[in-house]
Design a protein that fits this description.
By secondary structure, the chain is α/β, with parallel strands linked by helices. It has two domains: 5-141, 3-Layer(aba) Sandwich (Rossmann fold), CATH 3.40.50.2300; 150-212, Arc Repressor Mutant, subunit A, CATH 1.10.10.10. The chain has helices spanning 14-25, 39-49, 65-75, 90-98, 111-122, 130-141, 150-154, 158-168, 173-180, 184-198, 203-212; strands at 5-10, 30-36, 53-56, 80-85, 103-106, 127-128. The radius of gyration is 18 Å and the shape is globular.
C-alpha cells in the first residue's frame, strides 16, 4: 500500500476543519493527523507530529497564519505549507511567499482543485490558484508589486503585528497581556508604538488598517 501523506489542518472555524477532514479522507493518499484552531496550536501540532504538509488559514486568533508560517519555515523546513484562505489581496499573497509558503489556494476551490494543489506542493512545486495568479499579474502590470502599506507594515515587529491583530479583534490591553503572557504595561506600550509607527491614533483606525491587510475579517 502506498504511503499516505500526513496532513495538519490549521483553521479556526470548526465546521470548515470538519469539512476539509471529510474531503481529504476520501483520498487514499492523505491522512489528517492533526488539527489546530490558531497559529500557536498549528506550531505546536507541526513540531510534535512532523507532518508532510499543513493546510494553513491566514486569519486566525492569537497568532495569525503568516506569523505561524514564518516560524514553521525556520523550525520545520521539511513540512510543506499550503495556504487556504479567502483573501485575494495582492499584498498578502506576496507577504506569504516572502515568508516561504509553498502554495496559495482560495477556499472557493473545488475538491479536485484542492487535491491537485496539495499534490503539486508535495511534489516540491509551487502552487498558485488561477484567480490569485490573475491578481498578482494585474498588480505587476499596473506597477503595484510594492505594497501600498509596505514600509509601515515592514516597520512592525512580529509582536506588534500580533498585538495589532488582537486589537482589531476587540481585545483590551489587559486581555492582550493575558493572551500573550506579557504585562499590561508592555501591551500598552505595543499599542502606543503601533499608533506611532502607523500614524493611526485610535483603536478604530488600527482595526480598519488590520482589515485592509486581511488580518481580520468582518
Amino acid at each position: 500500500m502506498p504511503k499516505k501523506h500526513r496532513i495538519v489542518l490549521a483553521e479556526d472555524h470548526t465546521i470548515i476543519r470538519e469539512g476539509l477532514r471529510s474531503l481529504l479522507s476520501l483520498d487514499p493518499g492523505f491522512e489528517v493527523v492533526g488539527e489546530a484552531a490558531d497559529g500557536r496550536e498549528a506550531i505546536d501540532c507541526v513540531e510534535r507530529l512532523a507532518p508532510d504538509l499543513v493546510l494553513m488559514d491566514l486569519s486566525m486568533p492569537r497568532m495569525d497564519g503568516l506569523q505561524a508560517i514564518r516560524h514553521l519555515k525556520r523550525q520545520c523546513p521539511h513540512t510543506k505549507i499550503l495556504v487556504l484562505t479567502v483573501h485575494k489581496n495582492e499584498e498578502y499573497i506576496l507577504a506569504t511567499f516572502r515568508a516561504g509558503v509553498d502554495g496559495y489556494a482560495l477556499k472557493y476551490v473545488t475538491h479536485t482543485e484542492l487535491v491537485s494543489a496539495i499534490q503539486t506542493v508535495l511534489r516540491g512545486e509551487p502552487y498558485l490558484s488561477p484567480a490569485v495568479s490573475q491578481v498578482v499579474l494585474e498588480g505587476y502590470l499596473k506597477g503595484t508589486e510594492t505594497p501600498q502599506y509596505g514600509s509601515s507594515w515592514e516597520s512592525l515587529t512580529s509582536r506588534e503585528q500580533e498585538v495589532l491583530k488582537l486589537i482589531a479583534e476587540g481585545y483590551k490591553n489587559k486581555e492582550i497581556a493575558n493572551l500573550l503572557c506579557i504585562s499590561v504595561k508592555t501591551a500598552a506600550t505595543h499599542r502606543a508604538n503601533l499608533m506611532k509607527k502607523l500614524d493611526l491614533h485610535s483603536a478604530a483606525a488600527l482595526t480598519s488598517y488590520a482589515m485592509e491587510r486581511g488580518l481580520v475579517t468582518t
